[in-house]
Amino acid sequence: MIKVEKLKKSFGALEVLKEISITIKHKEVVVVIGPSGSGKSTFLRCLNMLETITDGSVLIEGVDITDKKTNINEIRTEVGMVFQHFNLFPHLTVLENIMLAPTKVRNTSKEAAKDKALELLKKVGLADKASIYPDSLSGGQKQRVAIARALAMEPKIMLFDEPTSALDPEMVGEVLEVMKQLAKEGMTMVIVTHEMGFAREVGDRVIFMDQGYIVEENEPVQIFDFPKHERTKSFLSKVL
Amino acid sequence: MGFNWDVIVEYLPFFWKGTLLTIALSLAGIVLGTIIGLFIGLGKMQSNRWLALPFVWYINFFRGTPLFVQILLIHFGVVPYFIGETNPIAAAIIALSLNAAAYIAEIFRAGIQSIDKGQMEASRSLGMTHVQAMRYVILPQAIKRMIPPLGNEFVVLIKESSIAAIIATPEIMYWSRAMNGQYYIVWEPYLMAAFIYLILTLSLSAVLNRIERRLTTG
Known about the structure:
The complex is a heterodimer of chains A (240) and B (218). Chain A has 240 residues and is of the alpha/beta class. Chain A contains 9 helices and 10 strands. In chain A, α4 (110-123) crosses α5 and α5 runs parallel beside α6 (169-184). Chain A is globular and about 55 Å long. The relative contact order of chain A is 0.17. The mean pLDDT of chain A is 95. Chain B is mostly helical and 218 residues long. Helix content of chain B is 83%, strand content 0%. Chain B contains 8 helices and no strands. Chain B has helices spanning 5-44, 49-64, 67-83, 88-113, 117-125, 130-160, 172-183, 187-217. The chains are: A alpha/beta (240), B mainly alpha (218).
């Protein structure tokens, strides 16, 4: 489903990703952990080309997104993304936030988009918030709307970039609950997070990144209970 | 100081004509300046620095030199160069528009760049093109932030149109100076001009406040 080969990314002279290669299967939930500055967010943002890729390739369902001939906008409709800071559109209501991309990008009719949006809002537990503006939502509610907005495009893959890092502690649970449900439904997901409990419970595979490399990848139990590398051990001893 | 109302009454028809011309100059400056300014602003925001350079220097020139100098250059230099003779109204409109465009370009740029870059990223991540993201997400938010500085620029434009008197464009200040020259009086012509400008700028401010309020509540 996703195949990353020798991916490199530099910001000027700073090399943030150094030869990342990984294959992610259909319906797999991959959790990326690691210290800040390890390149995990950059890696995630390369998967839908929010960052230009310096070298290597990223294949989404066999299509090389680094190829200039690839229509990246089309690929992005298949790859939903949820951001740390939600990035909801403040000038639109919750409902309009969710309807915007389907109606403008997919040319879905207003009625169909609205039905879909309401259904998604029900799914994330916010059916009663459809007509209000994002400003009056709590952080956890904003993030759930952001998830619904991404799902409205019916993506095959969902990317989560530290979705709970900007939330008050008591709101983390409600967002993780929605993500768990998605995983259960068989969504292919790549999640960058600091929630180790969540990684252990929901992840099919955990990737530990440090200094632009994938240091270790394995099943959650192996990573958390029997880490092989010194760097993984020292990181986990600090966060667990 | 006795205030001579008779000369004011005598000059009322001229002030009326002058006011209409001032309004026309300002409106033309606002409309043309906004169109050119949008173009210049987008030009300056290009990621290619060499292509952006002419736009950067356009702004540098028109913001870095006095309007007085620009209006003389255009009236006595640029317009005659192209059409062989000069025309004070055309020269005034050109100078005001080009000058305002430089300021308006910066207002557009600042407005667009003040929107958090996460907004563009979220739009693009949903599959929108750059143009769609601009149209549906960035500009609707940026325009709200542009209204107050744009209003400011429009008020400045009305006042600066008075400089056109120096090239004999028959607007408000032109008739004030004529009145001053004819009767050797100071208070009547210039207070009258100040009064008219004040009414024009206050009216514009009131209109802009209304637009601003409607946009923020809507």
